[in-house]
Amino acid sequence: MMVGVVRYTLICMVSLCIAMVSVSGQAPCTLSNVPLQQNFDIDLFLGKWYEIEWVSPAYMDAGELWINYYHVYSADEYGVVTGYYSGKDSNTAQCFLGGLAVLKSTDHPAKMLLYNEQKRKVMYDYWIVSTDYTSYAIAYGCLNRAPDSNDTCATARSWLWGRSRSLPESVKVNARTIFESLCMNLTLLYATGWRGDECIPDVSGFAERVNTDRVSFLFPLLTVVFVLSRSFCC
Ligand SMILES: *[C@@H]1O[C@H](CO)[C@@H](O)[C@H](O)[C@H]1NC(C)=O
Ligand SMILES: *[C@@H]1O[C@H](CO)[C@@H](O)[C@H](O)[C@H]1NC(C)=O
């Protein structure tokens, strides 16, 4: 009798344990479990970020990879954040430039929505997982959600950004651990090449153009921008 109870209890504990392990194995891969930088301050995040490494959703041929790739973010007098990206085609060394409009999500300060005026013409989730603002930033981007579950990302990317062109190995190792916890496939991790000068595009009047493009494309979101603009609140 006693042996039976003990055995039954053991079986229960083991199955509970298995259940807990399988739940905790899945948990970080849902969007609601993506870790986010606490007290994220977009003003400290503005400026230039050099791409150090990133995890692609699909295999990339070496010839498809961009070099000298970076982002720059700035805020206008109303606190509306825009940005641009620039880099070079690794084969032709041709410079390219694209505009980014940034919306801050009401959900969490570290959750942003990016609108790329050159490509896709969609807003996608761009979240800051961890940053010290002065040396590195780890970002998670979800291009589209799984059709059957809005808490699962179907096409995800992750980035390690630096305030300079290179980062210490320890920072990269830490970033890869975080990428893994985000269920990114590390065989699809690519280091960004930095060779020679970076492209310094002429971006005068660019922020206005990006904003106008974004506004005309996403008119309903205009209200969100107004609500979030600091100039209207204080
Ligand atoms: C998913 O959809 C449900 C119901 O529509 C909603 O309550 C929830 O906030 C959504 N979750 C995310 C992460 O968007
Ligand atoms: C990771 O990516 C590689 C290369 O595309 C692929 O062969 C492998 O199956 C992927 N692993 C997982 C767990 O998806």
UniProtKB/TrEMBL annotation:
Stored Pfam families: Lipocalin
Signal peptide extent: 1-25
Presence of the UniProt keyword Kinase in the record: no
Entry GO terms, CC: cytoplasm
InterPro entries for the chain: Calycin (IPR012674), Invtbrt_color (IPR003057), Lipocln_cytosolic_FA-bd_dom (IPR000566)
UniProt name for this protein: Lipocalin/cytosolic fatty-acid binding domain-containing protein
Residue ranges occupied by any Lipocalin/cytosolic fatty-acid binding domain in the UniProt entry: 47-184
Keywords assigned by UniProt, alphabetized: Disulfide bond, Lipid-binding, Signal
GO MF term list: lipid binding; pigment binding
An example Gene Ontology biological process: response to reactive oxygen species
Domain of life: Eukaryota
Organism: Littorina saxatilis
Coiled-coil portions: none
